[in-house]
Amino acid sequence: INNSDANIDDIGTYDDFHTIDWLREMSRNRLRHRQILYRKKESFFRTLKGLHDAWSGWLVVLLVGLAAGTCAGLIDIVTKWLTDVKLGTCSGKFWLNQESCCWNSHTAEPSGTGCSEWKTWATIFGVENSNTGLTYGVNYLLYIVSALIFASLAALLVKMFAPYACGSGIPEVKTILSGFIIRGYLGKWTLLIKSITAPLAVASNLSLGKEGPLVHIASCCGNIFAHLFPKYGKNEAKKREVLSAAAAAGVSVAFGAPVGGVLFSLEEVSYYFPMKTLWRSFFCALTAAFILRSINPFGNSHLVMFYVTYNKPWFLKNSKLGNYPILEVVVVTFITAAASYPNPYTRIDASMMIAELVKECGPVMQNNLCDYTASVVNATFSVVKDPPVTPIGSGLRTALWQLALALLFKGIITVFTFGIKVPTGLFIPSMGVGAIMGRLIGVGVEQLVYNYPDCALWKTSCHAGHSCVTPGLYAMVGAAATLGGVTRMTVSLVVIMFELTGGLQYIVPLMAAAMFSKWVGDAFGNEGIYDGHIRLNGYPFLDNKEEFTHTTLATDVMRPRRGDQPLTVIEQEGMTVGDLEHLVRTTKYNGFPVITSHESQQLIGYLYRRDLILALENAHHNNEHVLSNSLVYFTLHAPTPSLGGANDPVPLRLFNIVDLSPITVTDHTPMEIVVEIFSKLGIKTSTVVKRSLKLLGIITKKDVLRHIAQLNKQDPDSILFN
C-alpha cells in the first residue's frame, strides 16, 4: 500500500483570494511545537534550534521595526524635498529642502519665500523683478507642472509594476489580518513601488497623506521578514501575528506614537491579537520610532512634524473617468494644483498646514494667524505668559477667509482624491479639515470672550483682560474629531493625539471629541471609512465586533438549497485515483465532505481541495504504480492488497490529510451561533448534519457573508469569489 501520509511541504497552503482556517493553522503550529520539544533531547544542535525557534518572534519584529523606521525616515525626507521643489530650489545645494536651506533665517509664514539662499523658479528664470504678474504666473505654472509630473509618474509606476500599491492599503491589510489571502499585496514589488510613489503622490499636493501607505509599507516589511522564519512563513495564522506588529509600527512612524500604534492595531485592524502579540507589537513600534527619531527627518528631534505643547489649561469609484486611472490622476491633480496655489494654506503640504494651525501664538509668531491689533510684547517685559485678549487684525481677518475657502476646497477634493490609483492616505487630509474648522471655531470663541467678557459661560473661568482660549488647541481637538468621525477610532485616536501634543491634561477634551464624533458618525452609519472600502471592494471580511440579531437557522443558509445539485462528497472507501482526479478537474469547490457511503451519508470528516491535489501529485511522483484505477482509502487501516503482477496498481491511503473533527452544526442551529463560530474561531467551512450525523450540507464563510448582506438589503453577489 502506498502511504501518502508523509508531510508534504505545500499541504495547508492556500490559493489566492481564499480564506485561511484559523483552527487548522493553530493546530499545525501546536504539532510543530511539540515536535521541536521532542527533538530537543536528541542533540545539542536540536536544542539550539529550539531556542532559535523560541526567540525568532522577537527577532522578526525587531527586523520589521528597523525596516519600517528606515523606510519612513527616507520617505519623509524625500517627500519634504519634492514638496519644496514645486516652489523653488536651494542655490548651490539643490538636495536641501527649503527648511534646511534657510536653517539660520527660517520664517514661520507659510507663504514666505524663506531666505536669500532659497530661490523661487521665477528668480532662477530671471523674471523675479521684471513684472509682478509674470513672476506670479511663472511660479504658478511650474507649481502645476511639477504636481502633474509627480502624480503622473506615481500613477504610471503603480499601473506598470505594482497595481496593488495604489490606495491606502489599510482596508486590505485589515482584510488580510482577518484571514483572507491576497497574493502579492504584501510583496517585494508592492513595497518598492509604494515606497517610491508615496512621496511623489504626497508632493503633488493631492489631498492625501502618507500615513495609510506607511501602514501598508510596514506590513510589506512584516510579510517579507516573516518568510525568513519557517515558524511564521509557513503558517498563515502565526504570520498574522507579525503583520499585526507591523501595522502597529506603521502607525508609530506615521505619527510618532508607539503606544497609539499598538492600540490602533488592536482596535482597528487586527482580527486575532493574543497577549504575546501585544508585547511584540509594542517592541516593534518602539524600535521603528527609535530608528525614525535617529534619522530625524524633520530636523526638530521629534518624531512628527507638528509636535506642539500648550501652556494654558483647557477650560468615485464607478465613474467613467475611473476606467482611465492615469487620466483620472492627471485631472484630479490639475484641479487640485490650480486651485491650491492661490491660497497659501492649501499651497503648502498638508502636514505643514496642520503644524501652522495647531501652534500657539506667542511673541515670536509673526504670521497672519497671530496678527492681533495689540502686540503681546510689552515695553516692560519681553514675554507675556498670559497675553491679554485683543481683537483680530487685518492679517488674521485675511487668514480666516483663506482658511474658510481652504476648508471648503479640502472637504470636497478629499472625497474625489481618496481612491485614485496612487498611494493615498486619509489620516492627514481628515486631520487637516478638522484642524481648519477647529482653528476657525477657536478664533471665534476667543473673540466672543473678548466682546462679551461677562457671559456666564466663561466669566468664572476667564479673568478679565486675559486670554483663556487657545485656538491651536481647538485645531488639535478638531483634527481628532474629524479623524474619529471618518475612521470611528476611539481609544487609539486619543492616545495618538496625546502622544502628538505631549500634554496629559488634554486627554479629556480629546476623549470628548473622539466619542462625540463617533456617535455622530454612527448616526449616519456604523461602518468607518475602512470598513466601507472593504465592503465596496467585496472582500470577505466578517467583523467579529458586529452582532447578528436575526432569527434565521443554519438550514436557511447551508448549501445545497432545495432545487440545487446534490452536494459533492467523497466516499471513505471505494473511490479510485481517477475518480478523485475527475472530481478535482470538474469542480471548483475548496473542499469536500468525507462520508461512509452514499447510502448512509454519515459524516466522517472534511478534505480540502488543495491538500487532495498535492497528495495525489505526491503519490504519482513517489510511486509509479499509483495508477488511475488505484483504490483510495481514507481510513486508518486499509485492506491488504491481493498479490498480483509487478505492474498492478497499488492502493493509496490518504487518511492523515482528512480533517476528522470539522466544526459541525445541526440544521436547527440558530444563525447567530453560527456567525459567532465563524467570527470567533476564524473557520472557513462548517458542515451541517442531522442529530444522527447524517450530512445535509455545508456553510462557508462567504455563505455567511452573503446571508448577512441579503438581510441588510445589500447585494449578496458583491462578496468576492476566487
Automatic annotation (TrEMBL):
Q: Which Gene3D superfamilies match?
A: 3.10.580.20, 3.90.1280.20, Clc chloride channel (1.10.3080.10)
Bilayer topology reads: Multi-pass membrane protein
Q: Where in the cell is it found?
A: Endosome membrane; Membrane
* InterPro entries, A to Z: CBS_dom, CBS_dom_sf, Cl-channel_core, ClC
Q: Example GO molecular function term?
A: voltage-gated chloride channel activity
PROSITE patterns registered for this protein in UniProt? CBS
Q: Which domain of life is it from?
A: Eukaryota
Keywords assigned by UniProt?
CBS domain, Chloride, Ion transport, Membrane, Transmembrane, Transmembrane helix, Transport
All residue ranges annotated as the CBS domain in the record: 558-624, 657-718
SMART domains to which the protein is assigned, alphabetical = CBS
Q: Which family does it belong to?
A: Belongs to the chloride channel (TC 2.A.49) family.
Q: Tell me the protein's name.
A: Chloride channel protein
Native source species: Ciona savignyi (Pacific transparent sea squirt)
